Amino acid sequence: MIPNMKPLLYSFTLPMLKEWMEKNGEKAFRAGQVFDWLYGKRVNSLDEMSNLSKGLREKLAASFSLDVLKEITRQESADGTIKFLFSLHDGHAIETVIMRHDYGNSVCVTTQVGCRIGCTFCASTLGGLKRDLEAGEIVIQVLAAQKALDAEQQRASHVVVMGIGEPFENYDSLLAFLRIINEEKGLNIGQRHITVSTSGIVPSIYRFADEKFQINLAISLHAPNTEIRTRLMPVNRRYPMDELMDACRYYINTTGRRLTFEYGLFGSVNDRPEHAEELAALLKGMMCHVNLIPVNYVPERNYVRTSRNDIFNFKRILDAKGINVTIRREHGSDIAAACGQLRAQHAKQTQG
């Protein structure tokens, strides 16, 4: 919980809220009514929960905050992508993105204010980690996106936990968030429509495997060998690639689910034909999918974008080696599309 603040009502799973009701002299079914008001009817205040007694609403108001995100700005792309910059109660800024696909609308959420992982290609890590988000602060990002989609009579059908921060370093809040948005009385987003991305926090990959979710897991790999990965991602020093790959195999064997490996292509760093050959050898025999990512240019970083021909050549080599591979469609290329860029721009402006 955030210091000196009542817990967010949005942070409570349905079983947690049922337990609270019973401890406070209320019927457990009231928790389901509250969930319907929050996530079905998407009200903004307890006073709007008209089928709850005044006494219960007063108890809820005394125990919980319904603090909502304040929209600082939003950018809309020609392709329909919407990027929000929100302010939290303590003034920190976070990003949330709506992306349009042929299969539905996907919401990308942030789990931390900043990030301490230190990937050398990422804008999110600029300025380091400020704090973890409470579960409800992640939940209300999806709610805010859904309210924006309500105006178009559309639904947020998918969620990707790929925004600012390392989700597995905020593990308990992540799990509560996943359970709340998956709850039938909540936002009712199916587990197979949710993807969590990690930079490779090995102990948490084992832990997540043992949760037996049907949620998709994506690993930010970005390199075919441990030397290049250490250069791109300092986390590889803490959790070397061989340990990471062991954890990935455990995840596949335990859950029976296919893993996705995210592979950002950086000109002359990890995008040569020999790198594709090495990556194919690394992943041979694994039930996995490689998502090739043409990297967004980040002014504060010094990587060169891989050419279109080299991207397709890299894919052809993986295809020929029997590796399931796609090239990620770019979203919002005409706005501050790279994760953390909008927040970084805002920080510069507010600091003078």
Automatic annotation (TrEMBL):
This is Probable dual-specificity RNA methyltransferase RlmN. It catalyses: adenosine(2503) in 23S rRNA + 2 reduced [2Fe-2S]-[ferredoxin] + 2 S-adenosyl-L-methionine = 2-methyladenosine(2503) in 23S rRNA + 5'-deoxyadenosine + L-methionine + 2 oxidized [2Fe-2S]-[ferredoxin] + S-adenosyl-L-homocysteine; adenosine(37) in tRNA + 2 reduced [2Fe-2S]-[ferredoxin] + 2 S-adenosyl-L-methionine = 2-methyladenosine(37) in tRNA + 5'-deoxyadenosine + L-methionine + 2 oxidized [2Fe-2S]-[ferredoxin] + S-adenosyl-L-homocysteine. Its cofactor is [4Fe-4S] cluster. Keywords: 4Fe-4S, Cytoplasm, Disulfide bond, Iron, Iron-sulfur, Metal-binding, Methyltransferase, rRNA processing, S-adenosyl-L-methionine, Transferase, tRNA processing. Reaction proceeds by a ping-pong mechanism involving intermediate methylation of a conserved cysteine residue. The active site is at E95 (proton acceptor), C339 (s-methylcysteine intermediate). GO terms for cellular component: cytoplasm. Gene3D superfamilies: 1.10.150.530, Aldolase class I. GO terms for biological process: rRNA base methylation; tRNA methylation. Specifically methylates position 2 of adenine 2503 in 23S rRNA and position 2 of adenine 37 in tRNAs. It comes from Aneurinibacillus soli. It is found in: Cytoplasm. [4Fe-4S] cluster binds at C115, C119, C122. InterPro entries: Aldolase_TIM, Methyltransferase_A, RlmN_N, RNA_MTrfase_RlmN, rRNA_lsu_MTrfase_RlmN/Cfr, rSAM, rSAM_sf. Pfam families: Radical_SAM, RlmN_N. Its main location: cytoplasm. The keyword Calcium does not apply. Binds 1 [4Fe-4S] cluster. The cluster is coordinated with 3 cysteines and an exchangeable S-adenosyl-L-methionine. Belongs to the radical SAM superfamily. RlmN family. One of its GO terms (molecular function) is tRNA (adenine(37)-C2)-methyltransferase activity. Its EC number is 2.1.1.192. It comes from the Bacteria. S-adenosyl-L-methionine binds at G165, E166, S197, S220, L221, H222, N296. It is an enzyme of class 2 (transferase). The keyword Methyltransferase applies.
